[in-house]
Amino acid sequence: KIDLSTKFFNKKVSFPFLISCMTGGTKEAEKINQKLAECANELNIPVGVGSQRQALENYDFHESYKIIRKHAGSVPVLGNLGAAQLILSNNIVDNVKQLIDLVEADAFVIHLNPLQELLQREGEPNFKGLLKKIQLLTTKIKIPFIAKEVGSGISDNSAMKLLEVGIKGIDVAGSGGTSWAKVENLRNNETVNSFNDWGLPTSYCVRTVSELKKKKKFMLISSGGINNGIEIAKSIALGADFAASARIIFQEVIKNDIEGVRNLILSWLEDVKNIMYLTNSDSLKNLQKSKLIRKSEMY
Q: Which of 99, 112, 189, 234 is least crowded, fewest Cβ atoms below 10 Å from its Cβ?
């Protein structure tokens, strides 16, 4: 009797979980994206593509993105481009329309990675005018846009600014998952960096950003260290509409193929059902109403 189905904007999906944006733009990515799309189709959950920057710069890599819709059936597919590319583009509306058409996207992710751009040797840490560019896109293009961090989290103040320019979804992507600061340090052979653990925790972001639902209507996605069903359930209870994961899914598809990813996600969702049973929540809406008690308050 426990129902995990929900809507991703206007499409009904079976679970409040999405396979987050990961990869694209290489031959290796084409195979991985095909498998992830097939898994998403089988489970009837949304799937995101990695940054489509390569698709703008090199036609040869288009197939690594197009293959997602080819194998995802009718499930929601998310396009994706970085904020830095929005700033640099002189024709951003047409560019994003091209990327949307490439994957037949139901929604489009703008990923915000200022820390990564700052630490990259080839980084482009100029975000000046970003909100105006986003507002241009949300005004001219009639699919939902999602703003997504990549491991440093989104505060309620930043989220409100994004919502005010037409963003319809916030993916907080807080600290606790992949640290792109550490990734860049490894690329640069750095041994010490003060920013390895920079960012707001995912739980804090979800709890505080969810308060904005009293003023604005938007989808809230919890990501950043989502590695099991308990964390998905906690995310929903804190106010998220969806949870998302990338790295652990990526690792699983490489090690154990589609079957491994399917079994992993299904095991997580079985745990969510068990938690809903234990908290007397027969729907996701009721799980969001569950009273949360901090561990520190138990002692």
A: 189
